[in-house]
Structures are given as structure tokens and as C-alpha cells.
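Long-time lurker. I teach an intro course on protein structure, and each term I like to show students one example going from raw sequence to a predicted 3D structure in C-alpha cell notation. This year I'd like something fresh instead of my usual example. Would anyone be willing to generate the C-alpha cells for the chain below so I can use it in lecture? Attribution to the forum is fine with me.
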Amino acid sequence: MVARHASARFLLCLALVAVLILAIAWLMEHPAAQDPKKVVAANPPEFLMGEVRDLHGPVSGAVVRIKGNSTESVLTDAVGRFRLAKPSNTAARITASKEGYMIGGIEWDSSPLTIHLSSLPTTDCESYRWVDPEPDPAQKQQCGTCHAEIHEEWAASAHAGSVTNRHFANVYDGSDWRGRPGVGWNLLAEYPDGAGVCTACHAPTVAFDDPAYYDLRLARGTPARGIHCDYCHKVSEVANGQVGLTHGRFGLKLLRPAQGQLFFGPLDDVDRCEDAFSSIYRESRYCASCHEGTVFGVHVYSTYSEWLESPARQQGKQCQSCHMAPTGKLANIAPGKGGVDRAPGTLASHRLFAGNQLEMLRRCLKMEVQATTEKNELNVEVTLLVEGAGHRVPTGFSDRNLLLIVEAMQKDGSAIAPAAGSPRLPAVAGKALHGLAGRVYAKQLSDFGSRTPVPFWRARPDVLDTRLFPGRIERTSFAFSGQAQRVRVRLLYRRFWQEVAKSKGWPDNELVIIDRSVDVGL
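-- Reply from a regular --
Happy to contribute to a lecture. Here you go:
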């Protein structure tokens, strides 16, 4: 009997020791459990509970966030309520936005935490006076006064020069680079009733009753600033017209206030009581009415339809993904003027080209050259590929062209003529290049007498289009007979056909994208 009691006590002690060992092991894996203070710190963060309302009651589906935080947001439920993690910044504001409303905001520690949204105006005020973009300390409402860095980017862009650009002006009014009249192509002289089509995109804030509407040389004041800040940020939606046939201002819905101010944009937490969020500012369709156009029956601009068919669109990229890509340098859109610090990757560039046009072309155009010899004949294969572009190259205005030039030289530097059957450059490439081995990548407009190049207002509807497709490899072979020592391959971008540029005296018509030499060594 005594032995049985001793055995039971031993087993009980052994069990207690095992429990103690397991408890110590658990505490070692969960050190916070040893300190009650650490248990409190491990609890989930506190949350704010609030609601979003308008004049009629709760607003569902509103985006609520801490102002300046681009990564975390919540949506209000069916009765306008939200639950949001409490901000660490004691000066933070909570904002709410929904399309159709002004953005609203409130201090995070307000009680009750109710954000009120005001509905947008229902009618566009056509007598609205446009705000000038230039900085002026005496005019706080002028865009550049507060948004200095964005203004500098815009001022260097094609949008800022859409009225004053000398190439545009020379073709529009028939002048040349030095301002002499009556030189070459002249839209005003040949097609004066069509000048308003240009105004719709190049100067969208010129009033219909302004004489400048049909003669942009008369534009003055803010409308002469071209495609400026106030215009772009008054776009509330895309109009219902057919893309490509409804141009510029007629393809966009504007919402200008009768009193006060109203700006649309891609940020949904700017709660100055005069801002509204619109999703189109991140979408290609925002750009379509000016970058897709059949004018006088000719498909002059096709960048938007090119994007619709591009790999970029399939990957979810929009026009803004490349042409308004953040520079990483801008962190506050209005420093010292009420702006808040933001992640630099969330603020768009208004320069339109990442770096400049030449750099973007060099990034997207890839070229490989293979040169082989056989029986005293040189064969050159050139491969071109467009990478990272959401449209064909070149794109935009129909006269832009890309030229591939292939030249073979003997040991003494003299040129070798291309063999019969090799692709050669046509006359439209210009006298200096006509007949050389090469190819033209362009829209080639011709008139009803088959003359080319011609301006779009004289062209027939059918267009020869040889431009490069994004993501599609383009291979061309060239042959040369003779003792070749070296091959030179160039890729040139021209803003206009050489014949037009020469007549206008333009000194900046050509960009050298690639200039590569390959030693053959026969």
C-alpha cells in the first residue's frame, strides 16, 4: 500500500514538472506575455468611427482616407459609415470624396466625426473668366503662384506652346522661321473656314465670338497660353461625341462655376472646398479628343486608336503612365502654400516627356545590325523594335517621319551602291537621301494627283501608313555588291518632311536617334 502511494506521488510530481517545462517553453516563444505592458502594445491600433453625409443624408461608396496617405483608404458602407485606423499625426485631417461632389475634410479628432459633402454645380457657366497660369504674388489664384514647380514643368511642355509654337504657326499662317509671310504651306490662306478646328485643340479657351477663334494670331491674354492649367482642371468628364470626329474642347465636358472656384484632378483628398476628384485624369480617354482626329476626311491624328490596340493597354497602362510619369523629385504640389507632403511617386509630371523627346525616342527604339559577306556581296539585316511605347512610332501629327538609312563604304571611304532589289529611300526622304538604301516609317499623305508630301487639308482620305508597331519586330534586308569595309546605319526622326522644313527654314527638324557603324573587314 505504501509503495502504491509513493508511486502515485512520483507520477504526480513528474506531471507537474512536465507542465512547468511546457509553460516555460511557451513563455520563451511569447515574451510579450511576460510583461503586461507589452500585451497592451500588441493590441490592434485604435480606430476612428465616423460617417459621410450630404444634404440628403448618408453617402455610400465615398473614399475616406487620412489626407496625404495615398496607400490606405476605406469606402463608406450603405449607410455612409466608415472605420479608419487612427492617424499617428495629431494634426492630421480625414477626407472624403466621391465623384459628383466637392472633396470634404475634417480634423481627425472632431466629435462627431461627420464629413459633409457638397454636390457639384449642375450647369457649366460659359461666362466664367479663365485663370491665368503665370505666377503673380499679387494674384493668389493664379496657378503658378502656389504651384511653382508644376508651372515650370508645364511651361516647358508642348501644351504651353500650343498657340505660339513656331512650327505650328508657320504652317497655320504660311510664314517661315524668320517670320516672312507667304512661304510654303498656309492653312489660313487655303482653308480659312477650317481654322476653328485648330482652335478647338490648340487654344480651347478662346471664346467663340473672339476674332481669334478663326485666326489664332489675334489671341491675347490667358487664351493665348494654349492648353493651360485652368482649362485642363475644369474637365469633369468626356463628352458623348464620337472620338476622332468630335475635336478638342467639343469632346470634353467642362464644369465652370458661376461663383467661387472649382478644380478637378486625380487627387481625392484636396479638401479646400473648391476641389473635386475625377477618375478620367488617370485615363487615356481624357487625352483622346485632341489626340485622335479625322480632319477634312483624313485620319490625321491616331494616337488614341493606336493605344487601344497596343500591348501597353493590355498591360493596364494609360497615356499618363508614360507622359505624366512622376519624376520622383516633387513631394509637395504647393509647398508653403497649404500643400501637404506626399510620396513623390504619386505626383504626376506636367512635362509630358520623361526627360525630353529625344531621350524618349532613344529609350523606345531598339536596333540590331547583322552584316555578312558572301562571294563579294555584303548583306545587311536591320532589326527594329519599339519597346515601352503605347502607340506606333512615329505618332501624333501626320507629317512626322522616321528614316532608316543604310550605307556601305569601301576601304577608301567611297560609297557602294545598293544592289538591285534592295529597298531604297523615296524622294519624300529629301534630295540628300533619295536613292540610298533605307526605309521610311511614316504616314504618307498624297493628293488626288498622287503628289506627296501634301498638307492634310489637301490630302485624299487613303493614307500609306508604314509606321512601326509597338512590340512587333521589323526586319529589313539590304544587299551591296563590292568590297565593303564598313557599314553605317542611321535612324533619323524628322518632325516634318524635309521639303517642308527646308521651305520654312526650320533649323531643328531632325533628331539623330541612332548612328552606328559596323566594320565588315572583307
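Some talking points for your students: Confidence is low (pLDDT under 50) at residues 30-42. The chain is about 20% helix and 25% strand.
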